[in-house]
Write a structure and sequence with these properties.
This protein is of the alpha/beta class. It has one domain (about 5-285): Ribonuclease Z/Hydroxyacylglutathione hydrolase-like (Metallo-beta-lactamase, Chain A, 4-Layer Sandwich). Helix content is about 25%, strand content about 25%. The chain has 8 helices and 13 strands. It has helices at about 30-35, 60-65, 80-95, 155-165, 170, 210-215, 225-230, 250-265; strands at about 5-10, 15-20, 25, 45, 75, 100-105, 110-115, 115-125, 135-150, 175-185, 200-205, 240, 270. The strands form 2 sheets. A 7-stranded mixed β-sheet has the order 7-8-9-10-11-12-13. It has a 6-stranded mixed β-sheet with strand order 1-2-3-4-5-6, covered by helices on one side. The chain is globular. The protein starts with a strand and ends in a 22-residue tail after the last strand.
Length: about 290
């Protein structure tokens, strides 16, 4: 599936990614409405990963400009009290704006977007929470398709059609799912089992090395080499890295990505969103790292 992804992601300041073809906005940091301008009207689903201000500060303006009573829908971690409080404030602050739906989401929930697309939510460890409490989420977009059951593959089309009419679609085919797009949100984890086979994964990479994180007791975010290592076994189509700390210059980030990919034998293109830069079509840019040909 062709995806046009715009984004801005700078640790502590603002993060958002808009997937144009799907009408999905992942997080809604400050400046998202100004950056997307009239394209904010295409936002149908807003999946917020957690309640840090740099991931939700742009919600009020976006809803005020584009709220139509039924869209966009805001999906948020179910046990974060900040979101009901923000929804109540928005209602008081903009009483004349039609109120969009706010939908709590728990780890393991599946949200249907259309007949062939579903978004799955997974808890991550960015926000400390007891077992069963959902405070911070990662999201995976899956495409649903129907596949003919093996026992009917030798039948002719007319016979398959007859079985469909008499027995129903589920009798003849199985539902299969293909992972289209993953979004990590903020997370210290690099357990990539959920991302296996994903066409595109957007993953945070706040620190370029573990010493940067440990020296500052900032263990709630990912480290570049850990992400590159984990991505190597996930059979991804492409990797987008963002949420880098402003302590790093773009040239330093690019060099670190190239070195980490070369050291790990990375076999996929790797793109990045550098601090303080808005990227309009990430996957059409030249990758920071491209695997050797041949």
């Amino acid at each position: 599936m062709k995806l046009t992804i715009s984004g801005y992601s700078t640790a502590l300041y603002a993060t958002w990614y808009f997937v144009h073809e799907l009408g999905i906005l992942f997080d809604a940091g400050d400046g998202v409405t100004a950056a997307l301008a009239q394209k904010t009207g295409k936002v149908r689903h807003i999946f917020v990963s957690h309640a840090d201000r740099d991931h939700l500060a742009g919600l009020i303006q976006l809803i005020q400009l584009n709220g139509k009573g039924d869209s966009p829908v805001v999906y948020y971690p179910a046990d974060c009290g900040s979101f009901p409080a923000l929804a109540a404030f928005q209602k008081r602050f903009d009483p004349d704006t039609p109120q969009c739906p706010w939908q709590p989401v728990r780890s393991g929930d599946e949200i249907p977007l259309r007949s062939d697309l579903v978004v799955k939510a997974f808890s991550n460890a960015h926000v400390s929470a007891p077992e069963g409490v959902t405070k911070s989420l990662s999201y995976l977009v899956e495409q649903k398709k129907r596949k003919l059951k093996p026992e009917y593959e030798s039948l002719k089309g007319a016979e398959i059609g007859r079985l469909r009419r008499e027995k129903g679609e589920d009798y003849v085919t199985d539902e299969v799912r293909a992972p289209i797009l993953g979004y990590s949100g903020d997370t210290p984890g690099t357990e990539f089992a959920m991302w296996q086979g994903c066409e595109v994964l957007i993953h945070e990479s706040t620190f370029l090395n573990g010493g940067d994180a440990n020296a500052r007791h900032e263990e709630k975010h990912s480290v570049l080499d850990d992400v590159i290592r984990a991505a190597g076994s996930a059979n991804l189509g492409a990797l987008i890295l963002g949420h880098f700390s402003v302590r790093y210059a773009p040239a330093e980030i690019h060099s670190a990505i190239k070195n980490a990919c070369a050291a790990r034998g990375t076999s996929i293109p790797v793109y990045c969103v550098c601090p303080m830069e808005t990227t309009r079509d990430i996957l059409r840019d030249t990758p920071v790292f491209s695997p050797p040909v041949g």
